[in-house]
Amino acid sequence: WNKGWTPAWYENAMHMFSFTKSTDDFNLEEVVKYGDSKGVKLIGYHETGSNLINYLTQIDSGMALYQKMGIHDIKIGQVGSRLNMKEWHHGQFGVNYYRYVLKKAAEYQLAVNFHEPIKDTGERRTYPNMMSREGARGMEYDAWSDGNPPDHTLKLVFTRMLAGPMDFTPGIFDLNEEQGFNNRSVHTTLAKQLAYYVTLYSPIQMLADLPDNYDGYPAFQFLKDVPVDWDDTKVLNGEIGEYVTTVRKDRKSDDWYLGSMTNEEGREFTVSLDFLGEGNYEAQIYADAPGTTWQNEPEKVAVSTVPVDKTSTLPITLGAGGGMAVRFKKL
Predict the structure, then answer these.
(1) pLDDT digits (tens, 9 = 90+) for 219-255
(2) For the CA atoms of 100, 101, 103, 108, what is the dihedral angle to 10 degrees?
(3) Of 47, 107, 140, 282, which one is the catalytic site residue?
């Protein structure tokens, strides 16, 4: 939205972004007003390009602008191999910089989602506005590289996720990426993309695809339903790099959600639903359709419902590179 973006912004060392001036064809204030009329709040974006000298001279005015407009969340990026062309992200300079920005955001009542961050060390205990951070090969790598292999997120669950929330930016439905670079494909099924919202914890989640790509998919209902704030979490099974099944309880209801996913191997197993509370539930299941793999009709999802309770078991069938997502709705 802001001035400074050019086709060569990534390669342009010490790129000069403005954090208060909109581009000539974009009116930030009008967009915010339109969003308010639809009940939609914007997430602000400050891409620094690792030019922190430029950013820190504007940080107060840029964050004050968001506060004035009623924007309460901000994504801050530090794309580049070195901060200010010379400092490591994970060095003392970088640690001090990230802490300073986090404190400054708190002054302006902004929740922060860092991209190109330092490692999570528990700052969110002191600064609850530290919502999430990237810090991994996220979904975006499937656009411009050979892609994340099917076992990638099965490793992140047991490594990166131990440090804290991760903004992986899931939710890709156009798995063949017809609009992407050189028609590269995503190495998952659509059902696995749904499972990410349960298995990969973040208190702020993205829907990373184009809005048009969600049209006509019954599976989009799961993304409308799934919360980001959880009261309880249990891992039902898992092997590093192989598979995992996670369930989480919604903090604001008695509903539970399940995400299960596998690597390049298809697999079948059964899990107990003894984590459910008393009473009856409706299991709203989004599974890989028969024959679906990440290489064969990955967009096909079998949607079904079945009555269950805490004495029930749930059979799970995962295609290669596949997944399953379930909402257990309390009746």
Answers:
(1) 999 999 999 999 999 999 999 999 999 999 999 999 9
(2) 150
(3) 140
